[in-house]
Design brief:
By secondary structure, the chain is α/β, with parallel strands linked by helices. The protein is 25% helix and 37% strand. The protein has a 6-stranded mixed sheet with strand order 1-5-2-3-4-6.
Amino acid sequence: MFMRLKSELYVQALVRRVNGALAAAYVAKRGDTDAGVIFVRVNRLDGTGGLLSLFTNMDGERLARVVLEPGTAEPDIDAHLSRELSRDPDIWVIDIEDVAGRHFLDEKLDGNWS
């Protein structure tokens, strides 16, 4: 059996990590404190960005899936998140503003983020 980190604690740590790297991060949507799905929206401050989702696989390993690749128009990201919210109101949305498009996640990525 593995210990799973609560979503709220993970989000707090991620926001601190980003802010400590002199980028900006904030919680745009607060979800379920224990097990809410976490989405990370990266805004490149040029009208584009990308979207990642954190999940735990069957082995208990936390991974990050690229939902929308960098370079996606912000309205498309907003539309995707609106659909996710309509299905699950308990999701977290973390906004990271970084011109370089860094996501600051340590997890192994599932998908292309370049």
